[in-house]
Amino acid sequence: MASTISKSRFKAQALEYFRKVQDTGEEVIITDRGQPVLKIVPYLESPTDALKKLRNSVIRYKYPLEPVGLEDWEALN
Fold first, then answer.
1. pLDDT tens, 33-77?
2. What is the distance between the alpha carbons of residues 70 and 76, in angstroms, rounded to a whole number?
3. Buried (b) or exposed (e) across 30-53, using 16+ Cβ within 10 A?
4. Is residue 47 within 8 Å of residue 33, measured between CB atoms?
5. What is the number of helices (H) and of strands (E) in the chain?
6. Pick from 31, 35, 26, 25: nearest CA to 11
7. What pTM does this model have?
């Protein structure tokens, strides 16, 4: 979950929050008068790196348009 901090407090402790994002990967949301205005997120070398973890994880269905788990629905019995 992202941390929320006011703009004035962030200004005084910016490096501390930069290190927190870098070390933990937790996002920080900066607010101005209670409204979110900025979000600091960890840098990823490539956005596709996150998708590489999903490669070859999709199950192939022989009949993709057929309903799945018909026997699991009590209303059909």
1. 999 999 999 887 777 877 777 788 777 777 778 777 767 666 655
2. 8
3. bbeeeeeeeebeeeeeeeeeeeee
4. no
5. 3, 3
6. 31
7. 0.57
Which amino acid is residue 28, in one-letter code? V
Residue 16, exposed/middle/buried by CB under 10 A (0-12, 13-18, 19+)? exposed
Q: Is the pLDDT of residue 29 over 80?
A: yes
Report d(CA 19, CA 17) in Å as an integer: 5
Show the tokens assigned to 35. 């409204």
Query: Contact, 43 vs 49, CB < 8 A?
Result: no
Say what the pLDDT of residue 75 is.
Answer: 62
